Each structure stands twice: as structure tokens, then as C-alpha cells.
Please model this.
Amino acid sequence: MDTTLYFCLNKIRFWLKPEKILIYENGSKLVLIETKYKNMNITIIGASAGVGLETVKRALERNHKVTTLSRSTIELPENQNLISLKGNALNKEDLQKSIENADAVIVALGTGKSMKPTTLYSDFAKILVEIGKKDIPTIVLTGFGAGKSWDFQPNFFMKLFFKYLLKDVYADKTKMEEIISKSDLNWTIVRPGLLKDKPLTEKYKIETNLYKGVKIGSINRSDVADFMVKEAENQKYKKQFPALSNKL
Model:
């Protein structure tokens, strides 16, 4: 344990970790104070574009060491805290290598603009449940419309859009949710609304309950990334399905 010690204003502070200190003041008892999030090793699966790429940027901004796994090259400046692995998330060896030193795993897989039937999400979930670490946060991106949230779309046009265009993709996202939520992983399943490419605001609504009249609108990809990195740092929504929207 690092016991770096210094005196300041009649206080003795014992630094235990970057995010925690013990303060002994004027003969009073020791008090544990949370100071900030700790630097982590975060693995991001599906990191070459969209929310995944934004999540890499946000994690690096918050001084974490990031390992990525994707089939495509990540277009980012060189960074000593970034390890980019080229591979297939459906390959057990590739996935195992990417998560072996992880303090948290963030899954941001996507099929791009394809609306064709897929088994990407459910196939990946089966492998992750088999080899994933049970004692670290596992943050999984799906979308509002997966699982039971399908019945709570905000308006008639979105319901039509999902029913006729995204039905097959979201059917497999639902399967992924079911597989992961029944596992022993320390999961949080994140359901953002319609995604936008706008700057980070750090202002968004987090809804954990589904009810008649619930309103989940659009949200910036950068804000979804912000939420997922912060959830990896401090898992407040373990075993829950937080839905995200920029409308507060």
C-alpha cells in the first residue's frame, strides 16, 4: 500500500489509492473520502466506429488504459494508453486476449447501416458469457427497442420504423440481452434512444423503469459513451437496463 504522507493545515493524509484518501485531523478519527475515479484497464469491443469509437475517445480523455478489439483499423492519433487489437469478436481466442487484463469490459458491437437479419449479437453474447470475467463490470450497448422496451417506443413513426426496418436487428439484440441478463456477469445493459452525432454535453436522462408515457428521445453518441465509461468506473446500474436520452 502506498502510504505517501504529508502535513497540511494540521491534517495528516494517507493516500491509499488515487481515488481514496484517509484524513486524520486534530486527533479525530480516520475518515475515508472518495476523491475521484481510479485509472482502469478498459476493454472496448466494437471500437472502430459509432458509439464504440466515441467510447474509446472518452475513456482516453479520462486517463484510462484502453484495449480495443475490432476488425477495422481505429482512426485515432497514437496514444500510449491505447492498445488496438485487430480481430473478430466471435473468435474465442481473440476475445480472450482482449479481456485478459481488463478491469471492465464495454461492448459496443454494431452492424453499421445493415438492417439484414443477423446473429452477431446473440453469438457474441454466448461466447462472452462462457469466457467473460464474472467479477468486473460488463457494460453492454443495445438500444431502446430491445427487449421489453420494444413496446414503449415514443411515437407512431418510430414504431413503424422498428417494425418494418429494424425488426430483425433488434430481435437479435433482444436475444443478446436475454443471454447476458441470465448470466453471472456483472452486467449493465444500456438502451440509448435514437443516436445523433453531436458534441458531448454530459447532460442526459437515465430511465431505469418502463411505464406508459415514458419518453426516451434522441441522444448524442458522445453522451452514450460518457455514460458507459462512467458506469465502468462506478457501476451504479448493475443488473439493470438504463435507457438514455438527452431530453431531461
